[in-house]
Design goal:
Layout: H1 2-12, H2 30-34, E1 35-37, H3 41-49, E2 55-60, H4 65-80, E3 86-91, H5 96-101, E4 109-114, E5 117-123, H6 128-139
Helix pairs in contact: 4-6
Protein name: Thioredoxin, mitochondrial
Organism: Loxia leucoptera
InterPro entries: Thioredoxin, Thioredoxin-like_sf, Thioredoxin_CS, Thioredoxin_domain
Length: about 140
């Protein structure tokens, strides 16, 4: 009975998606705190445009193969920066208005934003060395 109850509690815990951020967080790393999914236009304004830290904005889509390679690679490198830069993930299918506003014509598109302005941008997949150079340029290191 106790094992069944423990299993039910474990299965009830959300591990992904918007519900995962509610309640207690177990085993979060610095990478998780520096990367977030944009919820809507006002969330983008508050957490990206008004951010005191530089922000890398990853415009992606669930159906995009290169996005599935680039996203985790970029998240890992942002986490290595230990809070000097944040990463916002924007699904273009959920946020077409933001994609149009920032002239995203293909995915993945990655913007570097500082003080609310786009200071750099690339389209397509990059290797780790290129991504590190992109981040260092944004941070000013």
């Amino acid at each position: 009975m106790a094992q069944r109850l423990a299993l039910q509690r474990l299965l009830a815990l959300p591990t992904r998606g918007p519900l995962a951020s509610h309640g207690r967080a177990f085993g979060t790393s610095a990478g998780r705190r520096s990367t977030f999914n944009v919820q809507d236009g006002s969330d983008f304004q508050n957490r990206v445009v008004n951010s005191p830290k530089p922000v890398v904005v990853d415009f992606h889509a669930q159906w995009c193969g290169p996005c599935k390679i680039l996203g985790p690679r970029l998240e890992k490198l942002v986490a290595k920066q230990e809070g000097k830069v944040l990463m916002a993930k924007v699904d273009i299918d959920d946020h077409t208005d933001l994609a149009m506003e920032y002239e995203v014509g293909a995915v993945p598109t990655v913007l570097a934003m500082k003080n609310g302005d786009v200071v750099d941008k690339f389209v397509g997949i990059k290797d780790e060395d290129q991504l590190e150079a992109f981040l260092k340029k944004l941070i000013g290191a």
